[in-house]
Amino acid sequence: MTHRRLHGVTVQCTQGDIANQPDMDAVVNAANAQLRIGGGVAGAIHRAAGPGLEEECRSLAPIRPGQAVITGAHGLPNRHVIHCLGPVYGQDEPADSLLASCYRNSLDLAEQAAIQSIAFPAISTGAFGYPLEPAARIALKTILDEVPRLSSVRHIRFVLFGAADQRLHAQVLEELADQIIK
Ligand code: AR6
Predict the structure, then answer these.
(1) For residue 5, which of 42, 140, 150, 153 sits 20 to 30 Å off, Cα-Cα?
(2) What is the maximal distance between C-alpha atoms in the chain?
(3) What angle, 0 to 180 degrees and rounded to 10, lies between the N-to-C axes of helices 132-146 and 95-112?
(4) Ligand 1 pocket list (CB less than 6 A)
(5) Which region holds residue 129: left if phi is over 0, alpha if psi is between -120 and 50, else beta?
(6) C-alpha distances in angstroms, 107 versus 52, 75, 178, 181?
(7) pLDDT level of residue 2 (50, 70, 90 thresholds)
């Protein structure tokens, strides 16, 4: 199962590129503290957005682990980018609650901006070294816990780079959603 609908909100796990989600109002960036271009997700987002994004980010940086800030999307086919700094695994503690804060704070910003659809990458699971399965459990549990109080956001999409990463997220989503329904 690649998606679940709970409290009128669709939660979906797909394979793809976070910088190519033209049907979403907002995409989330797995940022660095300085909100500079970087590699991975941040590189893909900034390359597609163009230099105006880094310029807009300058006055918002630095951000702390767990924090999220919102900007325009510039050359991206979306309305907004929400930039999150995930925890560096083994360094920023408590890693699990900092990672959960990324998702919670992003959804708060999305609600404040009347965003209906938002796409997340698997924050901290690349350069920052967070193991994929625990990160997926924290991310999806945090999102499912938030779903009942969302009023603007109706569609949450996880965008995973690889097929195995997508399958793992879809499995975790199914398991956690089943626990809620039972
Ligand atoms: N679309 C979707 N997922 C992607 C993409 C993409 N275009 N590119 C990579 N991933 P990372 P982090 C996956 O390293 O761990 C940057 O240099 C990737 O396979 O982007 O939070 C920043 O500047 C992995 O599963 O983010 C920071 O310094 C996940 O996205 C630092 O890396 C996150 O990988 C942030 O590290």
Answers:
(1) 42
(2) 48
(3) 40
(4) 17-19, 30, 32, 38-42, 44, 86, 121-128, 159, 161
(5) left
(6) 24, 23, 22, 22
(7) confident
Q: What is the domain partition of the chain in residue ranges? A: 2-181
Judge whether 65 and 86 are in contact, CB under 8 Å: yes
Distance 122 CA to ligand 1 centre (A): 7
Q: Which two tokens stand for residue 96?
A: 């699990």
Cα-to-centroid distance, 88 and ligand 1 (Å): 12
- For atom 11 of ligand 1, the residue with the nearest CA is 126
Overall pTM surpassing 0.90 (yes/no): yes
At 180, the pLDDT band (50, 70, 90 cuts) reads confident
Q: How far is CA 112 from CA 66, 82, 96, 97, 107, in A?
A: 18, 12, 25, 22, 9
pLDDT in tens, 149-159: 999 999 999 99
The highest-level CATH class for domain 2-181 is alpha beta
Contacts of 180 (CB under 8 A, 6+ apart): 6, 144
Nearest protein Cα to ligand 1, atom 5: 41
CA of 177 to the centre of ligand 1 (A): 26
Beta bridge partners of 11: 4, 156
